[in-house]
Amino acid sequence: MPAQQKKIIFCVAGVLSFACALGAAAAVGTQLWVKGTILCKTGALLVNATGQELQKFIGKIQYGLFYGERVRQCGLGGRPFQFSFFPDLLKIIPASIHVSVILFCAVLVVFALVGAGFFMFNAFGSPYETLHGPVGLYLWSFISCSCGCLIMILFSSEVKIHHLSEKIANFKEGSFTFKTHGEQFANSFWIILVCSLVQFLNALLVRFAGFQFPFSKSKDSGTTTGAVDLMY
Q: So where does this one cross the membrane (predicted)?
């Protein structure tokens, strides 16, 4: 592939990686990771609410990695409550998983920026070291993509397996019991998915530029080895 086309590919990959870093950093600071509804089970059972009456006992909840908000409905109108994971909810959430998600988010942002820098370096400079060359580009893209996948897996397990929404809904609730009525992942969670796909795309762009994947044997080396074997 001509050098000019390689420069264009590396520039596109660098811009995508930089946009990925900005998007991930913005997503970490929002409370738009999970949106859902919570049912005041105790209140609904007391009045035996059904149908339209049940809507008076369904509140809302949304949260991110650091803070969130819930609106409890127990038949007397919505009452909002702001909460923070640190230190308010630290005792009731799976803290090790939650902290791991935050750490992997930080690693994703850092390595996406590093990848963007090296893509631009390879576009306008001359690669002279391994980490500046194609192997390094594959490495940064692989680390960023892996971190994005780990973030989604860990956070999904925290929400679905450990019932994070219910734990938050029942935080500091004495006589009332809340149950998750419905929940879905919001914009910030899907931004992390897009970032993972972007990093995977960057690796494909490096391959499209004409560079072999790391640890893959070229045809020339295989041919040479075969010729040597025939000599003996």
A: 97-123, 135-155, 189-209
Query: By the 8 A CB rule, do 66 and 84 touch?
Result: yes
Convert the pLDDT of each residue in 58-70 to its tens digit. Answer: 999 999 999 999 9
Task: State both tokens at 6.
Answer: 């390689």
The domains found in the chain, sorted by start residue, are 3-208 (1.20.140)
Tell me the pTM: 0.84
Burial class (CB in 10 A: 0-12, 13-18, 19+), 204: exposed
User: What's the CA gap between 66 and 83, in Å, rounded?
Assistant: 9
Token pair listed for 61? 């909840």
Sequence-separated contacts (24+) of 179-183 with Cβ below 8 Å: 179/38, 179/39, 179/41, 180/36, 180/37, 180/38, 180/39, 181/36, 181/37, 181/38, 181/39, 181/58, 182/36, 182/37, 183/34, 183/35, 183/36, 183/37, 183/61, 183/159
Cα dihedral sign, 160-153-108-195: negative
What tens digit of pLDDT does each residue of 155-207 get? 999 999 999 999 999 988 878 889 998 999 999 999 999 999 999 999 888 88
- Rg of the chain in Å (alpha carbons): 25
What are the residues whose beta carbons fall under 8 Å from the beta carbon of 138, sequence distance 6 or more?
Answer: 203, 206, 213, 214
Place of tokens 């930089």: 18
